Amino acid sequence: MQRILVLGAGLSSSYLIHYLLQHAHSGMLQITVADASAETAQQKVAGHDYAHAVAIDVNDVYELSLLVKEHDIVISLMPPALHIRVAKACIEHKRHLITASYVSDEMRALHSEAIKANVLLLNEAGLDPGIDHMSAMQIIHGIQKNGGTITSFSSYTGGLIAPEYDTNPWHYKFTWNPRNVVLAGQATASYLEQGELKYIPPARIFTQTQLVNVQGVNYEGYANRDSLSYIKPYGIETAHTVLRGTLRMQGYCSSWNHLIRLGLTDDSFTVKDAHRLSYRQLLSAFTPGSDISKLEYRVCKFLDILPDSESFGKLQWLGLFSDDNINIREGSPAQILQLLLQQKWKLNKGDLDQIVMLHRITYELNGQHRTHQTSLVVRGENEKLTAMAKTVGLPMGIAARLLLEGKLNGAGVQIPIYAAMYKPILAELEKYGIVFVDEV
């Protein structure tokens, strides 16, 4: 019997586990779902005959090592910082690892050890990064095979709420890790524009946006962290523009930038005795001036917005001016904001989300300039089997199944940019409705 270990039973795990259980019906595959919460893990396996749930403390290296040893493949949905200890256990016991996270310097340093152990550490195998790599490389390789030269590459992805369930002024609800959303844009973005190296510091990430049209709908896109590091792996050194970004509904970015300017996304210090403060008192502490009765005026003056503006209305809607007490004893401003947003941006029963992706690749072929544009829109099935969970989890589940079947090979630290990886995964994804629309 072959065994797969899924570490982490959070928002992005639902469809992955659902897919694996579908392929466990023969009894030849056993699924273990491990999470810090035994109850959460148990809910995901739902009493399936070929699956069981366990509680795990990933900080207990010995316990983690034993669990990894008992399985053939490990899929880690843990926070990125925890992947390294999982990867080391996989190398020790010669077990393959799959994650949806970006390759960190620490992970990259394990490449030689993984090759020596003949272990595949497959990272960036979810949505973004993941499906974006695979779909882009399929186009790039096709253009290059026909003799084309890539001159420009841009790619945007967004996890959004489906239009008919867009019921708040921010036009956003959480469909994945809320902490990642709150801390987005806190690293300098780097990319290539018309042959020039460009940087956007964190203070300007949400002010330098692009209008991006996907299948007739306008979005705004902001630059991701490091677009430059993909130029060589993608084999697009001839491109004079290379940019990877994130999509949001129009108006989101400027309003989010107000929260940044106010300091509410700061994760660098702890607000002591936060539970003794109201949200109004916290906001007042971050705003110039001292008269709390005039807080609304002070905020408008500081942000240079009008009291009847849409941006100010969004801040009010969040409850930042309310006298409600903060329900956490202490935490960073970012953690306090996250708890508030989790109440306000909650995906309610019956809500459906959607994933939106766009690649725009310009190339020269036979003396002509051409553009290949491919887009993807995926809708969630319900509030648990979300589009986010589907597009993050399915490619990892497919990769795990292909590994078990001996149809996927490789060793060391890899991302899915090779035809032997992306072709079978993309083909399987199409069976589940993840289909791109192409225009040339």
SSE inventory with pairings:
Blueprint lengths: L1 E6 L6 H9 L6 E7 L2 H8 L5 E5 L5 H9 L3 E4 L6 H11 L2 E4 L5 H4 L2 H6 L3 E3 L8 H15 L3 E13 L16 H5 L6 E5 L2 E5 L9 E5 L2 E7 L7 H4 L6 E8 L3 H11 L16 H8 L8 H9 L6 H9 L14 H12 L8 E13 L2 E12 L7 H18 L7 E3 L4 H12 L6 E3 L1
Describe the protein in words:
The protein is an alpha/beta fold. Helix 1 (14-22) crosses helix 15 (387-404), helix 7 (131-145) crosses helix 16 and helix 10 (252-262) crosses helix 13. The longest helix has 18 residues, at 387-404. The protein has a seven-stranded parallel β-sheet with strand order 3-2-1-4-5-6-15, with helices on both faces. Strands 10-11-12-7-13-14-16 form a seven-stranded mixed β-sheet, covered by helices on one side. Strands 8-9 form a two-stranded antiparallel ribbon. The chain contains 16 helices and 16 strands. It folds into three domains: 2-123, Rossmann fold (3-Layer(aba) Sandwich); 131-255 and 349-379, 2-Layer Sandwich (Dihydrodipicolinate Reductase, domain 2), CATH 3.30.360.10; 258-344, Domain 3, Saccharopine reductase (Orthogonal Bundle).
